[in-house]
Amino acid sequence: MQRYEVQFADSQPAFQLRDFQPAPLGPRQVAVAIKAVSLNYRDLLVSRNTYFCPIENGLVPCSDGAGEVIAVGDEVTELRIGDRVASLFFPHWQAGEADGRAISGALGAEGPGVLTPHFVTDATGLIPIPDSLSFEEAATLPCAALTAWHALFEAGQLKPGHTVLLQGTGGVSIFALQFAKAAGAKVIITSSSDDKLAHARQLGADHGINYRNTPEWQEEALRLTGGRGVDVVVEVGGPGTLERSLMSVRTGGRIAYIGVLTGLAGAANPMMLIPRLAAINGIFVGSRQMFADMLQAMVAHRIHPVIDKRFSFADAPAALAHMEQGAHFGKIVIQVG
Ligand SMILES: NC(=O)c1ccc[n+]([C@@H]2O[C@H](COP(=O)([O-])OP(=O)(O)OC[C@H]3O[C@@H](n4cnc5c(N)ncnc54)[C@H](OP(=O)(O)O)[C@@H]3O)[C@@H](O)[C@H]2O)c1
């Protein structure tokens, strides 16, 4: 059997196929035949070893997978062979507020990931998926979708009639667009591409701003909200966009701070939080309970993830290169089994 491992060496893709032998299952463990994996921007950071934590040579990459249970340990009662499941980004964050233990062992960075046909984890690290979602669709959810859900409805307290500002048309932002529209909110979305903005409008976006042609996009966000500002910003740009987000948010509004697309360092001035009485919340994916809530909403609203492109297992390095180009809209999927 072969799986991908991160190998940091010159002149080769960081994700390399390697032979492996599955280990025997522990009593609380479950083996999953992974059918599909989706990529996140984080996987690019892992492949460059620029993620928060140091990445060990030989790590199995990627956090987001879905598949079928093929074996369970003696003490596992909550899952059975044949169950359709998705991985949890944080296998220990079950519900409630996160503590250090809850956000330890994240798949595909601190702990082994899912870019393998045979994935083993504790039973608590998996969640059953609804029949209405294919394995490919379910594989897009553990990181990007759950982050968008957490940002909008837990930290952002988004309500019908609110306006949310989304940045770019990658995985997190397109899920946030779908969820915000289902919740009756208005969406302003930015992109480097007019074609992508047109696509976002087809998905329900109310307004699009090309941030290349309109670098002062915060002024447009204010104009579109009659000078009031938006209720929630889903901040995926990071240091390079935060200053404009602070100028876009309404008095008493919320910024869900998620991403680092503009890099890790910056000089945004938090002073604007004072006259705005605004809040910035750090978001780190989410818990199993949030995942369960999100799945219920997706079923009720018939929400299906937007998949940009599918790659074969053998072409996983090409999938990573496709993400690096930034031409995608929504999610990139690797078909595993
Ligand atoms: N904190 C967390 O828990 C968490 C969870 C998930 C993701 N993240 C982070 O969130 C960010 C997005 O992740 P993702 O997986 O959704 O990425 P992705 O799918 O690769 O999305 C990238 C897209 O972002 C847009 N973009 C790039 N630079 C931008 C800028 N300066 N301003 C506005 N948009 C810009 C581009 O869209 P256009 O082509 O339309 O311009 C690009 O295609 C990453 O930094 C990731 O590490 C954090």
Count of discrete domains: 2
What's the tally of helices? 10
Spell out which ligands are present: NADP nicotinamide-adenine-dinucleotide phosphate
Structural category: alpha/beta
Largest sheet: 7 strands, mixed
Structure, explained:
The protein is 27% helix and 26% strand. It has 337 residues and is an alpha/beta fold. The chain has two domains: 2-140 and 305-335, Medium-chain alcohol dehydrogenases, catalytic domain (Quinone Oxidoreductase, Chain A, domain 1), CATH 3.90.180; 145-282, Rossmann fold. The strands form three sheets. Strands 3, 4, 5, 6, 7, 14 and 15 form a seven-stranded mixed sheet that branches. It has a six-stranded parallel sheet with strand order 10-9-8-11-12-13, sandwiched between helices. A two-stranded antiparallel sheet has the order 1-2. The longest helix is centred in the middle third of the chain and has 15 residues, at 141-155. The radius of gyration is 20 Å and the shape is globular. The termini are close together. 49% of the residues are buried.
Ordered list of secondary-structure elements with their pairings:
Blueprint: E1 2-6, E2 15-19, E3 29-38, H1 41-47, E4 64-72, E5 84-87, E6 118-122, E7 126-128, H2 135-138, H3 141-155, E8 163-167, H4 171-182, E9 186-191, H5 194-202, E10 207-210, H6 217-224, E11 230-235, H7 239-248, E12 249-257, H8 273-276, E13 279-282, H9 288-300, E14 307-312, H10 316-325, E15 331-335
Helix pairs in contact: 3-4, 6-7
This protein binds NADP nicotinamide-adenine-dinucleotide phosphate (NAP).
NADP nicotinamide-adenine-dinucleotide phosphate (NAP) binds next to helix 1, helix 3, helix 4, strand 9 and helix 7.
InterPro entries: ADH-like_C, ADH-like_N, ER, GroES-like_sf, NAD(P)-bd_dom_sf, Zinc_ADH-like
Domain Enoyl reductase (ER): 11-334
Protein name: NAD(P)-dependent alcohol dehydrogenase
